Amino acid sequence: MEYVYAALLLHKLKQEITEDNITNVVKSTGVTPNEVQVKALVAALTEVNIDEALKAAPVALSSSPAASAGPSSSAPSSTESKVDEEKKEEKKEEEALEGLSALFG
């Protein structure tokens, strides 16, 4: 997890996400970095638009107004279709993030 945080920190500071930069950030915390995990993360992130991934990150369901309202039998069909669309979007987001989560299985 510390490697992902290091990459996010570098991205936020508009620094290049390289093996050396991630290694230096992790070292600065007093942890000895694992070179294999650093290389795997950098390789995985070369094909990821971090800004888009952050926008697509799932939000806690309890904070979502549609999730707290939930579908009901008396709800209009437009509300049901919105809930269905949101579920489809969440599924797509989860599928998109599976690649990154596989690195840290």
Report on this model:
67% of the residues lie in helices and 0% in strands. The protein is mostly helical. It folds into two domains: 1-55, Arc Repressor Mutant, subunit A (Orthogonal Bundle); 58-105. It is elongated, with a radius of gyration of 18 Å. It starts with a helix and ends with a helix.
Keywords:
single chain, 105 residues, Arc Repressor Mutant, subunit A, 2 domains, 67% helix, 0% strand, elongated
Task: Let me know the largest β-sheet.
Answer: none
Average pLDDT over all residues:
77
Helix vs. strand class: mainly alpha
Number of domains: 2
**Text of the CATH class of the largest domain:** Mainly Alpha
Helix content: 55-70%
* N-to-C span: 11 Å
The whole-angstrom Rg is: 18 Å
List the uncertain runs. Answer: none
User: What is the H/E order?
Assistant: HHHHHH
CATH topology of the largest domain: Arc Repressor Mutant, subunit A
The proportion of residues in beta strands is under 5%
Q: State the assembly state of the protein chains.
A: single chain
Q: In a few lines, what is going on in this structure?
A:
By secondary structure, the chain is an all-alpha fold. It is built from six helices and no strands.
How would you summarize the topology of this molecule?
Elements (H helix, E strand, L loop, with lengths): L1 H11 L6 H10 L6 H11 L4 H6 L9 H5 L7 H27 L2
Helix pairs in contact: 1-2
